[in-house]
Amino acid sequence: MELKGKHIAILVEDLYNEFEFWYPYYRMKEAGAEVMVVGTGAKEYHSKIGLPAPGGVSAESVKAEQFDAVIIPGGYAPDRMRRNAAMLKLVRDCFNQGKIVAAICHAGWMLVSAGILKGKKATCFISIKDDLVNAGATYLDQEVVRDGNLITSRTPNDLPAFCREIIAVVSGE
Fold first, then answer.
1. Can you give the residue range of the structural domain that contains 160?
2. Strands 52-54 and 138-139: what pairing?
3. CATH number of the domain that 143 lies in?
4. Is residue 37 part of a domain?
5. Are strands 121-122 and 52-54 parallel, antiparallel or unpaired?
6. Are 124 and 139 contacting, i.e. CB atoms less than 8 angstroms apart?
7. Model pLDDT for residues 39-81, shown as the tens digit of each residue
8. Does position 173 have pLDDT exceeding 80, yes or no?
9. Coil/strand/helix, residue 11
10. 61-64 CB contacts, 8 Å cutoff, 24+ apart
11. Residue 102 domain flag
12. Are strands 150-153 and 144-147 parallel, antiparallel or unpaired?
């Protein structure tokens, strides 16, 4: 149980990518972490294909100090998440406190809106590459990119490498 005693937030909003939410959710639990679903306040959210996810807690009710890492799944949910000041604050505060911030696919939009990409190396789904570059990141076309406390991946196909990297870093390997 590599992550026993660790606390991880996984963000959610409507139109999330079901693979990018559920795979890390269960993988982090399997590794022993306590995983908290953090959303914008709804009781339930639905993926791009309608799969429900629990609402968890509102981003307004948590603080970065509670977590060792925050995971941001993709899909179209990040475009909704980045309109929520509390979700942006949580990501920005985790990053500024040296906590792991992990984003996959379109979740790069949250990193852009949180203003944490300047001078960082990152990857994302190719269609938002220009957004990351314009926010000051150096784009790398790799399955997983780690730059300090920032971990990014491109697509659901990268989920195994993405989760391995999160677990390795959070566990202190």
1. 7-171
2. unpaired
3. 3.40.50.880
4. yes
5. unpaired
6. yes
7. 999 999 999 999 999 888 999 999 999 999 999 999 999 999 9
8. no
9. strand
10. 62/9, 62/36, 62/38, 62/90, 63/90, 63/93, 64/90, 64/93, 64/94, 64/96, 64/97, 64/99
11. yes
12. antiparallel
Tokens representing 130 are: 């220009």
List the beta bridge partners of residue 72.
103
- CA 119 from centroid of its chain's CA atoms: 19
Question: d(Cα 155, Cα 68) in Å, to the nearest integer?
Answer: 23
Q: What angle do CA 127, 15, 120 make, to 5 degrees?
A: 40
Based on DSSP, count helices (H) and strands (E) in the chain, helices before strands.
6, 11
Q: Is 106 a catalytic residue?
A: yes
What is the total count of domains within the chain?
1
CB 94 within 8 A of CB 150: no
Whether the Cβ atoms of residue 94 and residue 40 lie closer than 8 Å to each other: no
pLDDT digits (tens, 9 = 90+) for 109-141: 999 999 999 999 999 999 999 999 999 999 999
User: Is residue 89 classed exposed, middle or buried when 0-12, 13-18 and 19+ CB atoms within 10 A define those classes?
Assistant: middle
Is 2 a member of any domain? Answer: no
Q: Decide: pTM greater than 0.90.
A: yes
Provide the strand spans (E) within 28-68: 34-39, 44-46, 52-54, 57-58
By residue count, the chain amounts to 173
**104 pairs with which residues across the strands?**
153
- The residue from 80, 82, 106, 154 that is catalytic is 106
- Residue type present at position 92: R
